[in-house]
Design brief:
Elements (H helix, E strand, L loop, with lengths): L3 H11 L4 E6 L5 E5 L2 E5 L4 H13 L2 E5 L14 E4 L6 E6 L3 H20 L10 H22 L4 E7 L6 H7 L6 E7 L7 H4 L5 H8 L4 E4 L2 H15 L3 E2 L4 E4 L2 E7 L6 H7 L3 H10 L9 E8 L6 H14 L7 E8 L6 H21 L7 E5 L4 H10 L2 E4 L8 H9 L6 E5 L12 E3 L4 H12 L3 H17 L2 H13 L4
Parallel strand pairs: 1-4, 1-7, 4-6, 7-8, 8-9, 9-12, 13-14, 13-16, 14-15, 16-17, 17-18
Antiparallel strand pairs: 2-3, 5-6, 10-11, 11-12
The chain binds GDP-alpha-D-glucose.
Length: 493
């Protein structure tokens, strides 16, 4: 199962007669005001790109939070519009939230309580009653939108995405009428913490009750599934079956299963070869840009889980310990800002500018400085040119559910000339044999690993990258989609 068309066929055969509904906080199309009038934008990111063709083929409904500044002007009375706008294939149903609602639901409970709670990052989660109330309220808005979309429909498959929507499945299940057959499934895109950490959450039981209304719950890794089952046992006092990875609750059996997410390998491989990328590659090595012998690259959404500070500390130590690389090595960090309203993210932005400034000043020699920090989202040609030109791509999260950047780098490294350096705390590390593995907290070991990687013989680099590319080509995003849908289809009668 390796292409979008294969998955489309699969959905059509497996989910026959079922209305297909996807629910996520982020929407696949945004309407935005521009000087040329209202224009449609698609958010960058692999997930919406992978699910959109599927929705186009199945023609269901996607329920998501409206976030474009012209979104409200472009929907009907039921808050629906048909997308893609130029060739409508499915319904986008928008859920509206006020600024205050977004503050509590998205910036509050989702990203200041659940996000740090689920990542082992020594950031104290914020346990704030008003965030929790806001989270419940917004989940109810999503549930209401789903209810409207399933009114009069006797069979639907509803796929919830992520930690923003833990409570909505129960709300939807409770609203089901007698003969209505709803199959509910959820994919949790971030780690699930150990049972003792999860038990810190004052609303642990309600969160689990919400999720256990699903028939299927997916995580990236088996260890997150085990942690989830252990949390259910611990908090709800019900026995889980660790052999079958399931738990019985209120007369239903809930399947919990790993589905490691991936990228559209073939699409990335193709884009990486377009003339625009090749042109940009020449520019990257041009004297006025990066004329140095070695290039390292880092690409992240700016987040304290991504280990950006730890990466810079290791680069500092590497240049200090191996001074022959001074004036020879440049590290380009592309950081896409995110969640900037949250104090921890504001502090991180400041910390990043300080450490970049400090390191660059420490080593500054003539024109050369070791770190080029590009704040903002890179356009695709530049991003792919960097992926193809880099000697090393450093992905060093201190905790990450999976990490798609690692897989994008592999798919884009068409010449097999680069090396992937990966933190032992990224979900992707379990699959990506062939990467150089580092502990981002071990400054000394990390610095040595950078040196060893740059010194690696080309043959060894190619061998490693070939293994990685074979793996990601085979285990691509369509495999993820089809595995999840096949498992969900087991609940369809
Ligand atoms: C969550 C989980 C899990 C980043 N900077 C630029 C840029 N990006 C794009 C990347 C990639 C995406 O953002 C980041 O995806 P990740 O998977 O690395 O991380 P999260 O956003 O934290 O995602 C994660 C994922 O969900 C999916 O389940 O893997 O563990 O935390 O696509 O390319 N894109 C561009 N310029 C940038 O500067 N164009």
């Amino acid at each position: 199962m390796s292409s979008s068309q294969d998955v489309q066929k699969l959905v059509k055969s497996k989910l026959r007669g079922y209305k297909f509904i996807i629910v996520s906080n982020r929407e696949p199309y945004l309407h935005m005001h521009t000087p040329d009038g209202v224009r449609v934008k698609t958010p960058a990111g692999g997930l919406t790109a992978a699910l959109d063709p599927l929705m186009q083929a199945t023609g269901g409904t996607w329920v998501a939070g409206g976030s474009g500044d012209a979104d409200r002007e472009c929907v009907d009375k039921q808050n629906r519009c048909r997308v893609p706008p130029d060739k409508p294939k499915y319904v986008l149903k928008r859920v509206w939230m006020s600024k205050d609602e977004v503050d509590k639901f998205y910036f509050g409970f989702s990203n200041q309580t659940l996000w740090p709670l689920c990542h082992n990052v020594f950031r104290e989660p914020v346990f704030e009653e008003s965030f929790w109330e806001g989270y419940k309220h917004s989940n109810a808005l999503y549930a209401e939108a789903i209810k409207q979309e399933t009114r009069g429909i006797d069979k639907a498959f509803i796929w919830f995405h992520d930690y923003h929507l833990a409570l909505a499945p129960k709300m939807v299940r409770n609203d089901t009428w007698k003969k209505q057959k709803l199959v509910l499934a959820q994919f949790w895109h971030i780690p699930w913490p150990t049972r003792d950490i999860f038990a810190l959450l004052p609303w642990a039981e309600e969160v689990l009750e919400g999720m256990l209304a699903n028939d299927l719950i997916g995580f990236h890794l088996p260890s997150y599934c085990v942690n989830f089952l252990a949390s259910v046992e611990n908090v709800m006092r019900i026995k889980a079956d660790y052999r079958r990875f399931n738990v019985k609750y209120q007369g239903r059996t809930i399947q919990v299963k790993p589905f490691p997410i991936s990228v559209d390998f073939d699409a990335i491989d193709k884009i990486a070869r377009v003339p625009g990328v090749k042109q940009e590659m020449k520019r990257v090595r041009a004297p006025q840009y990066i004329p140095y012998k070695y290039i390292g690259v880092g690409v992240d959404r700016i987040d304290y889980t991504k280990g950006i500070i730890q990466r810079f500390r290791a680069i500092d130590r590497f240049l200090e310990k191996y001074p022959e690389y001074q004036n020879n090595f440049v590290f380009v960090e592309a950081g896409a800002p995110s969640r900037n309203r949250i104090p921890a993210y504001m502090e991180l932005n400041e910390e990043i500018s300080k450490i970049v400034g400090k390191i660059n000043w420490k080593y500054l020699r003539g024109y050369w400085k070791p770190i080029i920090y590009i704040e903002g989202k890179l356009d695709l040609n530049r991003l792919f040119a960097l992926y193809r030109t880099a000697d090393v791509c450093i992905v060093s999260p201190i905790q990450d559910g999976m990490n798609l950047v690692a897989k994008e780098f592999i798919a884009a490294n068409v010449g097999s000339t680069g090396v992937l350096m990966l933190s032992k705390f990224a979900g992707a590390t379990e699959e990506l044999k062939g990467a150089v593995i580092v502990n981002p907290y071990d400054v000394e070991g990390f610095a040595d690993a950078i040196r060893n990687t740059l010194e690696m013989p080309p043959k060894e680099k190619r061998r490693r990258m070939k293994n990685l590319r074979d793996n990601v080509k085979k285990n691509n995003v369509f495999k993820w989609l089809s595995d999840f849908i096949c498992e969900s289809a087991k609940f369809i009668s």
